[in-house]
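quick one: C2E bound model?
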Amino acid sequence: QADIALYQAKDSGRNNYVFYESEMSNRVKHEVQILSELNQAISEKSFQIFYQPKIDTLSERVVGLEALIRWFPQSEQAQSMSSPAVFIPIAESRGLIREITLWQVGQLVQDIQTLQENGFHDRVSINISGELLSHIENLVEFLEVIEHSELSFEQLDFEITETAYSKMSASVSAILESAQSNGLALSIDDFGTGYSSLISLRQFQANHLKIDKAFIDEIHRKKDDFAIVSATILMAHGLGKKVIAEGVETEQQFRALRRLKCDFIQGYYFAKPMPLQEICEFIK
Ligand code: C2E
Ligand code: MG
Ligand code: MG
Ligand code: MG
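yep, here:
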């Protein structure tokens, strides 16, 4: 279609329009290329899971792990799209999340075995796409796969963004709460970046709240950010939730958070996300 438009545009002799259309055409080709590689990655199961530790602020011990998907594509074009922040939304819009999520469960079953052998007995968090939550049959299938696997809800924590929470239907919410009563932990991810932070705090019975990196970056030198994080932690504690700070990169940030009684820390200051073997070493 873009090529037809290009042909018509040339005829009309409007150069700007022609340029715009050929850009479009390139972008379409680019996306087609990436999608075919993404599909290939799904069918060949060539993703990997990296794990980033969650650290207890006081004891500085590992108290949990977050599973973060990694994709190492072949072509240079797709390499620019290899960050999950980029390809997960593409996968969401193309209905590929179900496949990816099911692959992850299979991988987790194996990895948790190894983690336990290396002395890890806490929860692994997985990021749950809003797309999965908007297809109730996919969510139910996913939970059933977990139940029928060697995994148990006591070993898992679902990280759900505020935005995904706010779009969730009552029936999906009820399904998650029932899994929660069977041991699943729920976390509000990227807290503070959605449109309804306070409403989501009141409405969702999450166990943990993850303060977005945007509020942590300058917490040690910006009075306003310090005040926002301080109030958020007090509020969360008042509601019986534990708080995790995301994206902690420096000792100053860590100290500020310890002063504010933030429960847990995640960030490069302690550890980057790493492959299974490395995380086992780290835990030891
Ligand atoms: P998120 O769940 O909020 O994950 C935190 C992101 O911050 C991760 O990026 C992590 O690698 C990065 N990070 C952690 N500590 C630091 C730090 O100190 N400094 C900086 N600059 N970054 C830090 P990543 O792995 O690229 O993932 C980006 C987003 O993609 C995630 O945000 C999550 O929304 C999504 N995502 C990742 N893996 C999955 C997955 O398996 N399934 C789904 N549905 N989404 C995923
Ligand atoms: Mg997360
Ligand atoms: Mg986050
Ligand atoms: Mg995020």
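The first helix runs from residue 2 to 12.
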